[in-house]
Amino acid sequence: MTKSFEVKLNNKKITALYGESVLDLAKRNNFHIPTLCYHSDLEPNGSCRLCLVEISCNKGGFFVATACNTTVTEGMEIKLDTPKVKRIRKLNLEMLLSDHIQKCSDCNWKYDCELKKLAKEFGVTESRFSERRRKFKIDSKTPSIHWDSSKCIECGNCISACQQITGLDILKTEYRGSSIVFGPKDGKSFADTNCVFCGQCILHCPAGSLQEKTELPEVEKLLEKKNKKNILVAQFAPSTRYSIGELFGLEPGINLEKKLITALKHIGFDYVFDVNFGADITTLEEAAELIERLESKKNLPMFTSCCPAWVRYVEIFHHELIPNLTTTKSPTHCLACAVKSFFAKKIKVNPKRIINVAIMPCVAKKYEAKLPELKESYNPEINHSLTVREIGRLIKKHNLDIENLADSDFDSPLGNSSGAGTIYGASGGVMESALRTVSSQLSDGKINKIDFSEVRGLDGIKSAVVEIDGIKLEVAVVSGLKNAAKLIKDLKSGVVRYNYIEVMACPGGCLGGGGQPIPTDSKIREKRKAGFYTDDKEKPIRKAHENNDVKKLYSALDSKPLEGRAGRLFHRKFTKRRKK
Q1: CA-CA 20 to 30 A from 330: which of 126, 140, 187, 504?
Q2: What domains appear along the chain, each with residue ranges and CATH number?
């Protein structure tokens, strides 16, 4: 039981908890303290100095301290908005703005910039301090990340996210002459590092210095010049429907699937398909692959490969694990191949005329779409990949009030999915989807278990033993690459053993992806997750292998999972990449 004690906050006696910070105390009691560098995912460092408060301990006189990393103690008295504190906060904000070359008053960037929001809150249009002279860098060499160092305010969140969430050492603080530079080591481009493009640095940047490399101009050009030559297809991921509403002031977890379809049709897409359908394909292929490996006892444990950041991590750092990756393509690419094969034949068009645009919670998907090994079936399978944030901007540009749009259904026949496809965006969802099918197939239909709650949740590492008709499967679910590194270490040392492991690079899985709305934190991730499982329960079909439209697809391909044309369309190869 957590111990508590009383403190004074703005002359009001309130209960504090041992170990909590002044900022946590204030938030818990609905008091506002401005923050910029603070993020609940990261260890607080107090670098921005905007969360300053006045504190007195045991009547020893008041002093100014940062609320984010000052622990509450007994006898403490806290004052939040004294004239002194307000003056220093504003001064510190102006000093931060002197590092941020683009003046907030002139900036056309309307999204994802906490600095601009604070400048408006403080009534600061420009800094009284002259800009520091330093060299700036714009880096857009990767398919995923755009870095503009002129906007960097040196908060260090990108470094913390890279180290604490991803467990990598890509970003550093470096002194070059009189300047401090935050970015890839030795002034490199992200393209010349071991970055896995998870985008967590983007998700935690409060000043827009790090953003996704946008493909909106290319997509808009296609939409504007739409003619008989191109057929534009949009497909969106499971988690996109549960987070898109946040960009329009709605609560996380609200399913706007039908509204989003309408918006995409209004913008100019000819067809809209559901990546959940692709997830059902992935489930059938991956379940068959797992059964085959269990029977042959080869290449175990089997790791999932839906997450492109995780796959890149293995291809760079763990070549020995490449044979353990499932060769099944991600739902995005399984659906893309179905569109450019089965659907193209159905509407009697050359697949080259179909432009596939994927709307993802992920910036690594931009990288994945460009991989040569994912152009073997069709060149390319995915033409453009947009983040949730990018499609939100496009919808706003068209002045669409998404909440009040009419409902529309996905186009047939690649729009109907099972509950198994629905939960893919949550950590544990890929594994649970596969287990629903594996349990049925290994038991010849005798086991009809649907809910595998033991693999659900937002914990970084989860493990369980799942018994299926006398067979005990040892499974693990990991989110956050730093946690994956720990599990791999334990696996190699023999501390743990598993048959099947799901890994997602981002906290909570795709629902915490680097392409999601900003802010994203643990509470928001939890609300998004709730949406997945609520809708899964309401689905008439909750197992991928019971999806009749998927059955029709396999029948049209004259194939079974792992075999024939399905084996060629829905599976991939991996590449050993040189560590830089």
Answers
A1: 140
A2: 4-81 (3.10.20.740), 273-353+398-569 (3.40.950.10)
